[in-house]
Amino acid sequence: MARINLSGGSYDARAVSVAAQRVLNLYGEPVPADDGEPVRFAYYPTPGLTTVTQPGGICRCAYQTTQGDAIFVLGQSVLLLNRNGTTTVIGTISDYATPVRMSDNGTTLFIVDGTATGGWYCDMPSKPGSGTYGSLVQISDGAFYGSATIAIVDTFFLFVNPDTTNWYTSPAQFADESTTPFDSLYVASDSTSLSTIIGVAVLGQYIWLFGRWQTEFWYDSGAADFPFQRVQGVTVEAGCVAPYSICTIPTTPNTMNGGIMWLGQDRDGYARVYLGQQTIAAPVSTFPVDGALQDMGDLSGAVASVYQQDGHVFYVLTVPGQPSTWVYDVSTGLWHERCALDSDGNETQVRPLFWCAAYGKVWAGDRENGAIYQVSVDALDDAGTPIKRQRSFPHLLTNGRRGIHRQFGLDMQNGSGVSIAVDWSDDRGETFGAPRELTLGTSGNVWPTLWRLGMARDRVYRITWTGQAQTALMGAFIDIDPVRT
């Protein structure tokens, strides 16, 4: 029988008649060609969720401090997540549902919520894990103007003055308003596109200043009047659509010395996802991903997080109200979708909205119910709710003739005994028929197989399951006999 090899590519063509490959709650991992294995890619289940604690409130941020602590904002409450899964209240901030951002300089934790008066800070413990944070203080300094995003370089906190062309900084090594007050002259403007500044981020020693249509770069020049200077003659001809989509990326084989990802837009078109390194950037979203994002309407509320697990670095992009979340695996350059299931079994947005790593684990905060989860590949459901996993296969054609599909054998790791639904499309990926069931074996030496599958000129197979299974999907085997017509 011929092998159907899953080559890794998905969401690479706009028309399903060209490529109908969907990857839901699975991620691909290449098998090195030098290994001599017969498969090119294996697909593994995305991690599940285990509820650790549920203090309540909408999750608005998850952050790992420079000392390694995990800080969450749930509703108004700023919480330290302890190693044992308990939480300690640090203080309270504004009572909004909007995201917030945090940064710290090793001694002071700073929080912003995007409003003109929305800034808070507190002392950090002298050593990681001690849990002794100072009281949370709302900043009242007249030279603080609020900000949607926050970054840090050379101990300066960096902010964006909301709805203006200005950005500004704190003094070096900010501690509190009385001993290290803000300087009203530490303000600069977008000098290239002259548009509203959406957000700010730092990669290495470069400050990325995201305008609406363009991104420019600054660096610490050490000047006395204003410590930063623009990098002359260098811009990225794309701005930012959503400030909370801006994330820094760690070093991977595809991002030496790290990178930045964001949901961007240029003057000439709609939104795309960009990946930047040093002072250059390019879109990494494929045409189908671009189309899906651009069909969503207002993207200004999009939220992204980055986390690394089992060597894969995931950029998780969620647009509130949409039924699925788009995830870019920076390590492999592949996209996949993630979703949760509602009480009726329908696809809905994933439960977490923010992710962070701390204490050797990955954590996430729920978008509605105030739960904090541990994100683990050993968890096989979403805190008690099944996870729907689906992979559609490449088109199978028989040189324009009809073919008799005599046998379909699933190449998939066994051992769990879960049921796999197999359905297929004979109209080039537009619609799928009633599924037939296969059962994975409870031992490794099982080849789940279907027989007598009808006739088609162009067929797309698809498999779906919700059972709890530690598995790997490598592809399938197919026996097709072409006929004369």
Describe the structure.
With 485 residues, the protein is mostly beta strands. The protein folds into two domains: 2-46 and 389-482, Galactose-binding domain-like (Jelly Rolls, Sandwich); 48-376, Methylamine Dehydrogenase, Chain H. It is built from one helix and 44 strands. The strands form eleven sheets. Strands 2, 36, 37, 39, 40 and 43 form a six-stranded antiparallel β-sheet that branches. The longest helix has 8 residues, at 287-294. The radius of gyration is 25 Å and the shape is elongated.
Which spans of ≥5 residues are poorly predicted at pLDDT below 50? none
CATH architecture verdict of the largest domain: 7 Propeller
Please give the share of residues in helix: under 10%
Structural class per helix/strand content?
Answer: mainly beta
CATH superfamily of the largest domain: YVTN repeat-like/Quinoprotein amine dehydrogenase
CATH topology of the largest domain: Methylamine Dehydrogenase, Chain H
Count of alpha and pi helical runs: 1
CATH class of the largest domain: Mainly Beta
For the secondary structure, the number of strands is 44
Mean pLDDT score = 93
Distance between the termini: 22 Å
Described by strand count, sense and barrel closure, the largest sheet is: 6 strands, antiparallel
The quaternary organization reads as single chain
Shape: elongated
Share of β-strand residues: over 45%
Strand and helix map with partners:
Blueprint: E1 2-5, E2 23-24, E3 26-30, E4 41-45, E5 48-53, E6 59-64, E7 70-74, E8 77-81, E9 87-92, E10 101-104, E11 108-112, E12 119-123, E13 137-138, E14 150-153, E15 156-160, E16 166-169, E17 187-189, E18 197-203, E19 206-211, E20 215-220, E21 228-236, E22 239-240, E23 247-249, E24 259-265, E25 272-277, E26 280-283, H1 287-294, E27 303-309, E28 312-318, E29 325-329, E30 334-338, E31 340-341, E32 347-348, E33 352-358, E34 361-366, E35 372-376, E36 389-392, E37 396-397, E38 403-412, E39 419-425, E40 436-439, E41 449-451, E42 455-456, E43 458-465, E44 473-482
Antiparallel strand pairs: 1-44, 2-36, 3-4, 5-35, 6-7, 7-8, 8-9, 10-11, 11-12, 12-13, 14-15, 15-16, 16-17, 18-19, 19-20, 20-21, 22-24, 23-24, 24-25, 25-26, 27-28, 28-29, 29-30, 31-32, 33-34, 34-35, 36-43, 37-43, 38-41, 38-42, 38-44, 39-40, 39-43
